[in-house]
């Protein structure tokens, strides 16, 4: 199993760098809401005065967003980096990130969706453990349940040494193995985007986790076929499907579930559903790069947090 550097649990007055590496946020009061949240959690947010700026697609120019990301990664005083939201933009920063040398200090990165690109980079290039979890936009606007927010807080403060996830298998079990490895993955569309790049996902001997939002059934199927035909799935230990949501089109969401079931039944490795991780009101955090036990007898995932 690969060896990943653990993050350090946060404590009272820990400094957390707030970054916006992807899309803009329409709410002009978001910064004040973040400050209010951090005051209640007894954390110190560090926010660039130039966090937002003019850009065609993203929260700021590539130059500004990369500089803020670089500063967050390399400074020695903060303990974590929390992304405001996903959307689009992280892939534009990867060519610049690949030129950086890893600092001695490993930090906790929190985010999901488009932040998948940063998770892949930090795990594969710098060997950091990271946290696939709610963005600050979700937390401050209460877009996820209070239970998920409480669990997230306990995880980052080191108050929850173990996470348990109860799964549903898509297949009839033909073995009751225990799989011990780590999890890699995130947004299916970002995983697909990584193929053929210098930060392409490395899945050998790992559990692959996938989720996505507002992608039609045929696009989901096409992306899964590309993973299959590119050999990305050849040596994985298991595949976990999180939530694939299309709230505006319930019938499309049902079709997506049928696509996932068909794909699962075509595989010769375990494929299980891991609900309540993704773009719904329920969005549990999922530590990546951390030693994980997948119990196929109980359809249970157990992750012991080492931070």
Q: Please trace the helix and strand order, writing H or E for each element.
A: EHEHEHEHEHHEEEEHEHEHEEEE
How many angstroms does the end-to-end distance come to? 18 Å
Helical stretch tally: 9
Q: Can you identify the CATH class of the largest domain? A: Alpha Beta
Tell me, what's the shape? globular
By secondary-structure content and strand pairing, the structural class works out as alpha/beta
Helix proportion: 25-40%
Low-confidence stretches: none
Tell me the domain tally. Answer: 2
Q: What fold name stands as the CATH topology of the largest domain? A: Rossmann fold
Describe the strand arrangement of the main beta sheet, using strand numbers.
2-1-3-4-5-13
Looking at CATH, the homologous superfamily of the largest domain is Murein tetrapeptidase LD-carboxypeptidase, N-terminal domain
Measured by DSSP, the beta-strand proportion falls in 15-25%
- Give the overall pLDDT as a whole number: 96
Main sheet record: 6 strands, mixed
